[in-house]
Design brief:
The chain has 533 residues and is of the alpha/beta class. It folds into 3 domains: 194 residues, Rossmann fold (3-Layer(aba) Sandwich), CATH 3.40.50; 122 residues, Cytidine Deaminase, domain 2, CATH 3.40.140; 119 residues, Cytidine Deaminase, domain 2 (3-Layer(aba) Sandwich), CATH 3.40.140.20. It contains 19 helices and 23 strands.
Length: 533
């Protein structure tokens, strides 16, 4: 995702004429149209390599940088713009007589604009077969040097890094007779430094994760990330706290960070936290599914083989009291039928891949209700999870494992039935997203009870039973970690649980398995834990 600038308005006291521009871009999107627009103002265009060829092929007159500097491009392009005639033209202070006398003495002309984007280092190193040598060859030197020089001298030089800004810049020039305001230059300068910071961070992170022999470490020695502010929030976790929401510069498409809000009041910190949890959960399902979240835990979840309306109605049956004021995520577009059902209860946020016009019209009556539209439903992209602690940062790879429960280890005398396997599959997907110690009761397509965030696992088992408004008899149970004692199994059996899925690994596994056998339960070990703090 690119950051968009809003060009400065009303700053007519410090307008800068553009007479000479240097263009050297890797991303050539829109560059021909932009160069033609600049050419209409009789601006001299300097360029290099492939960019110069592209512009000439489209009838735009350009001067090669090597011709301008009088120094040939060499060393396979490593040396072409690192020249005093380039950097002097970018760095000279136009209001400093000594600078201008030095420039005149050494025949250095001023460069008023640079249009540059950098070698695609991040794309290069993302390739599985990328070698260390190839990575080094894709480290841009001349581009960042010119960007930093131009950005440092923003009062006199316009620095353009993003093709999305081309139309805005041409519009301002048309309105001002070929000039750019100092305010606009400042915004563009800031954006250039943000780009070079991100670029250097990508190089640092990559090289810090590599060993001399070319093998990769799990985590780099130093870790630098860049996020772009998406919006200020109403408040933080509590009204006395200030908050803002930042997006990753390359966030996955199917994520809250890429959501489009089409209705409702501003989001709060908690809204985003809960919406993220709900969307990650619902995206784990292929069938039409609905998740209802309260305080980052599910209080309703269901799938349907027929339609999303059925999934929503079953999800609401889990815990209709807790659903009040909750977050609802659906992995299918919302139509009029679903919207009618959703409008019967107070909700904070509804998230879906889309809302048809009838649904939007119906939900529009709830003016404060936030509707978030998110493209796609694949949230299983790899990457890091971050957790800030005072004075430090915890970093881990994302928990995206998709476990096949039918390949789990059956440790009891009785194996699960086919229907129990379906229910265990559903429950295991849900328990992964519940705060530890996590216990869920479920059927093959519906969440029945949740015990979340307790200090003892047996309490979570009790709470899941207590919170169940639906019958628990014949349900299955999923536990995010092993049972340390048999008491949880005994309580589950009393609730009518017939099958259990859990990681195993306790020193008392045999005791726990024996308890399951005594109650005629089936039990499957996954050997994978899903703690979520």
């Amino acid at each position: 995702m690119r950051t968009r600038i809003t060009l400065a308005k009303g700053n007519t006291m410090h307008l800068k004429s553009i007479k000479r521009v240097l263009i050297s871009v890797t991303d050539k999107k829109g560059i021909v149209e932009f160069a033609k627009g600049l050419h209409n103002f009789n601006i001299e265009i300097l360029s290099t390599g492939g960019t110069a060829s592209r512009l000439r092929d489209n009838g735009i007159h350009v001067t090669d940088v090597s011709e301008y500097t009088g120094f040939p491009e060499m060393m396979d392009g490593r040396l072409k713009t690192l020249h005093p005639k380039i950097h002097g033209g970018l760095l000279a202070l136009r209001n400093d007589d000594k600078h201008m006398n030095d420039a005149a003495e050494h025949r250095i002309d001023m460069i008023d604009m640079v249009v540059i984007n950098l070698y695609r280092f991040e794309e290069t190193v993302a390739k599985k077969d990328c070698t260390l040598e190839e990575a080094f060859e894709h480290i841009d030197i001349g581009g960042p040097a010119m960007l930093r020089a131009a950005a440092k001298n923003y009062r006199y030089v316009t620095v353009v890094t993003d093709p999305d800004d081309y139309p805005r810049i041409l519009k301002e020039m048309k309105e001002s007779g070929g000039k750019i305001s100092e305010g606009t230059n400042f915004l563009l300068s800031t954006k250039a430094f943000q780009l070079t910071a991100r670029y250097d961070a990508a190089i640092s992170n990559y090289l810090g994760s590599m060993r001399e022999d070319g093998t990769k470490k799990m985590f780099p020695d130093t870790f630098t990330v860049q996020f772009v502010k998406a919006q200020d929030l109403r408040y933080g976790e509590n009204p006395h706290q200030h908050a803002a929401f930042y997006r990753e510069t390359d966030q996955p498409v199917s994520a809250i960070s890429g959501a489009r809000q089409i209705q409702g009041k501003e989001l709060s910190y908690n809204n985003i936290m809960d919406s993220d949890a709900a969307w990650q959960m619902v995206s784990d399902f292929d069938l039409p599914a609905t998740i209802i979240v309260k305080h980052a835990n599910p209080c309703g979840a269901a799938t349907s083989e027929s339609d999303i309306a059925s999934a929503y109605m079953k999800a609401m049956e889990t815990d209709p009291v807790s659903a009040f004021g909750g977050i609802v995520a659906l992995n299918r577009p919302v139509d009029k039928q679903v919207a009618a059902a959703l409008s019967k209860i107070f909700l904070e946020v509804i998230i879906a891949p889309g809302f048809d016009e009838e649904a939007k019209s119906l939900l529009r009556a709830k003016k404060n209700l936030r509707l978030l539209e998110i493209a796609g439903t694949d949230t299983r992209s790899t990457g890091y999870d971050y957790r800030r602690v005072v004075g430090g940062l915890l970093v881990q790879d994302r928990d995206v494992e998709d476990f096949n429960v039918r390949k789990g280890q059956v440790v009891t005398k009785r194996a699960p039935t086919d229907e129990e396997y379906q229910a265990l599959h559903f429950a295991w997907k849900i328990v992964k997203h519940v705060k530890s110690n996590a216990i869920v009761y479920a059927r093959k397509d519906q969440l029945v009870g949740v015990g979340a965030g307790q200090m003892s696992r047996v309490d979570s088992v009790k709470i899941a039973m207590m919170k169940s408004t639906l019958p628990t008899k014949g349900c299955v149970l999923a536990s995010d970690a092993f049972f340390p004692f048999r008491d949880g199994i005994d309580i589950a059996a009393a609730a009518g649980i017939t099958a259990v899925i859990q990681p195993g690994g306790s020193v008392r596994d045999e005791e726990v398995i024996k308890a399951a056998d005594e109650h005629g339960m089936a039990m499957v070990f996954t050997h994978t834990r899903h703690f979520k703090h």
